[in-house]
Structure formats: structure tokens, C-alpha cells
């Protein structure tokens, strides 16, 4: 009888221990994460680093399971919409790729303020309202890839793109067209082939996000750069709200650290810029620098064309967003 009692007690203890372990494991929230860039591509690496850091600090609390990046998982322009519908839980994307979900997203690249300032002046609060209405939530900017530049196979000597066919994304479509170019959209992996076979004469891209292969076909960078190549972490609203406060706080703490270190004025950002300038020069890329009136025209057309497009596409919300995100109108 004593032996039977001992066996039963042992079995009960084992069951309780197993249940406790299972319960503890079940408390770990697993988020399905995707990137709007191919895995390993320069502009996608910061999100991969973010995921790794969250998983490191979030052991036992929250983990992100990477499901891959676009275009392998589908069009990058559909990632935001699919995430909002529940296909994914969290994503790393530039605003250009979730404009299909939220037409007001481009305001993030046109801002005159740091993200710390946007969090204090109410700009991101209003932007967040618009995101939540779409079933998503804006968590933060995890990386700034520097300004956008025009990269060319052959040089130009003035701010006039007439006669050039350029690969674009929504970021600089209005700008390049206003400068006289014809344009076509393509995915990131297609850029090399389009340049190699002469289908396009150049392309717009972020300063720090240049793929190493492109040095073979892109020989000139046009300065100055325009806008902000910001890359953001967004999430499905319902899934985010289902997380424990501890899990949400941990994810946000990592995102805000990444956000702060990549402010354009930070030492980290300046170091990235110096290294990229050196890398581009070492790979034979030359710089076309507009100065004086040419530079003023380049920057003026970039700004005015972008805001004109933004206000036309967002007549109800655009004026308020412009007030919140710019220092002067």
C-alpha cells in the first residue's frame, strides 16, 4: 500500500511539473514576422537585427518567428495589407511599402522632425489613429537608411531628367516625373537586370541600402539626397493588443533603442554614412554634386512634388499631417 501511494504521489508530482512547464511555455508569445526586403539584403538587415535582439531579450516572454522577406513571400506592396488582415503579426517595412494599407504613410519620409520630437508633438499620435483604423499599429522606426539618391549608369550635368527611363518606387515617382523622366516600377531583385540590359538608365534608392552587386551597373550617385529612407516596425493591431504588457514593453524597448541610435544626428548614423561613402568610392562610384541654384532646384522640386502628390491623395487628413510633420509650410 505504501509503495502504491508513493507511486501515485510521484505520478501526480510529475503531472503537475509537466503541466507547469507546459503552462510556462504557453505563456511565451510567438509573433509571425516578415520583412519587406529579401532576407540578407542591406535595407532588410536592420529588421533582422531587431528580431534577433528581441528574441535574445525576450526568452520566456516573446519571440518573433521569421517567415521570410519579399518578394519570396509575395509583393512587398502587399505585406502591410496582409499583415493587417492577420496573415502576419509584425513586419519591417519602409513607408513606401505600406502605403497600400495607409495612404498617409509617405508623411514619415517627409518629416522635418526627429522621431523623438514626433512622439512629443502629437504627430505620431494622430498617425497612430489612422493606422489603428486600418487594423494595424505603428511601433517605431527601427532604422534610417539615410536620404534617397538617384543612381545612374551615365552622368548628367544638370537637374533635368528628360529622356531618362528610371526604376522607381512610390517614394520618388512624383519627383522624377516632375524632373522629366519616364518611370517604371520593379522589385528590388530586378534592379540589377534592368540596369544591366539597359532597360532603365538609373534608379532611386537609399544611401545606405545599396546592394553590392549594383556597383557593376550603377556608376554615379547624384547629390544632394532627398527625403528620409526610414524603415519601420508595424504590427497587426489585434495581435499586438493580445500580448501581455510585459511582452509589449519588451518589444517597444528594443524598437525605441534602435530608433534613437539611427537618428541622422547620432554618432552611430554619422559613422554609417562615412563607411558607406568610403565603400561606394572604393567600388568606383562617382558623385555628381549639384550646387547653388541647381541644388536649390533639385531640393525644391523634390519637396514640392512630394507634398503636392501627398495632399492630392489625402485631401482630408493631409493638411493636418503637414502641419504636424513640418516646421514650415
- What is the CA-CA span between the terminal residues? 88 Å
| Biggest sheet, spatial arrangement of strands | 7-6-8-5-9-11
Query: Helices and strands, in N-to-C order?
Result: HEHEHEHHHEEEHEHEEEHHHEHH
Beta strand count: 11
Classify the secondary structure makeup into a structural class. Answer: alpha/beta
Mean pLDDT across all amino acids: 91
- How would you characterize the largest beta sheet? 6 strands, mixed
Task: Evaluate the radius of gyration.
Answer: 23 Å
Return the CATH class of the largest domain: Alpha Beta
CATH superfamily of the largest domain: Bacterial extracellular solute-binding protein, family 7
Portion of residues in beta strands equals 15-25%
Label the overall shape.
globular
Helix content: 40-55%
The name of the CATH topology of the largest domain is D-Maltodextrin-Binding Protein, domain 2
Poorly predicted regions: 1-25
* Helical run tally: 13
CATH architecture of the largest domain: 3-Layer(aba) Sandwich
Number of domains: 2
Task: Looking at this protein, list some descriptive labels.
329 residues, alpha/beta, D-Maltodextrin-Binding Protein, domain 2, six-stranded mixed sheet, five-stranded mixed sheet, 13 helices, 44% helix
Protein topology:
Blueprint: H1 2-26, E1 29-35, H2 45-57, E2 62-69, H3 79-84, E3 90-94, H4 107-110, H5 115-120, H6 123-132, E4 136-144, E5 148-152, E6 165-168, H7 173-178, E7 182-185, H8 191-196, E8 202-206, E9 220-226, E10 230-236, H9 237-242, H10 245-261, H11 267-282, E11 286-289, H12 292-313, H13 318-325
Parallel strand pairs: 1-2, 1-3, 6-7, 6-8, 9-11
Antiparallel strand pairs: 3-10, 4-10, 5-8, 5-9
Helix pairs in contact: 2-10
Signal peptide: 1-20
Pfam families: DctP (PF03480)
Keywords: Signal, Transport
Amino acid at each position: 500500500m505504501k509503495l502504491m501511494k508513493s507511486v501515485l504521489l510521484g505520478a501526480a508530482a510529475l503531472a503537475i511539473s509537466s503541466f507547469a512547464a507546459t503552462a510556462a511555455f504557453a505563456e511565451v508569445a510567438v509573433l509571425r514576422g516578415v520583412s519587406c526586403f529579401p532576407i540578407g539584403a542591406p535595407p532588410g538587415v536592420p529588421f533582422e537585427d531587431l528580431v534577433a535582439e528581441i528574441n535574445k531579450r525576450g526568452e520566456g516572454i516573446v519571440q518573433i518567428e521569421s517567415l521570410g522577406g519579399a518578394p519570396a513571400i509575395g509583393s512587398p506592396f502587399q505585406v502591410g495589407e496582409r499583415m493587417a488582415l492577420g496573415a502576419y503579426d509584425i513586419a519591417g517595412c519602409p513607408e513606401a511599402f505600406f502605403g497600400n494599407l495607409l495612404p498617409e504613410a509617405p508623411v514619415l519620409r517627409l518629416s522635418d522632425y526627429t522621431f523623438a520630437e514626433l512622439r512629443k508633438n502629437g504627430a505620431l499620435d494622430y498617425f497612430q489613429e489612422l493606422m489603428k483604423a486600418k487594423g494595424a499599429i505603428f511601433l517605431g522606426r527601427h532604422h534610417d537608411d539615410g536620404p534617397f539618391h538617384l543612381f545612374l549608369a551615365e552622368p548628367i550635368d544638370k537637374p533635368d531628367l528628360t529622356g531618362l527611363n528610371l526604376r522607381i518606387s512610390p517614394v520618388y515617382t512624383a519627383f522624377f516625373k516632375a524632373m522629366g523622366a519616364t518611370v517604371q516600377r520593379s522589385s528590388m531583385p530586378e534592379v540589377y537586370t534592368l540596369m544591366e540590359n539597359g532597360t532603365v538608365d538609373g534608379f532611386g534608392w537609399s544611401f545606405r541600402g545599396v546592394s553590392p552587386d549594383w556597383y557593376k551597373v550603377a556608376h554615379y550617385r547624384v547629390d544632394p539626397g532627398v527625403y528620409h529612407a526610414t524603415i519601420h516596425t508595424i504590427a497587426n493591431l489585434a495581435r499586438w493588443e493580445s500580448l501581455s504588457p510585459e511582452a509589449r514593453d519588451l518589444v517597444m524597448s528594443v524598437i525605441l533603442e534602435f530608433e534613437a541610435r539611427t537618428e541622422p544626428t547620432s554618432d552611430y548614423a554619422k559613422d554609417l554614412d562615412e563607411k558607406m561613402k568610403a565603400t561606394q568610392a572604393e567600388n568606383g562610384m562617382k558623385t555628381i554634386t549639384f550646387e547653388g541654384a541647381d541644388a536649390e532646384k533639385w531640393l525644391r522640386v523634390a519637396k514640392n512634388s512630394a507634398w503636392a502628390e501627398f495632399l492630392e491623395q489625402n485631401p482630408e487628413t493631409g493638411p493636418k499631417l503637414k502641419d504636424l510633420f513640418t516646421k514650415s509650410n
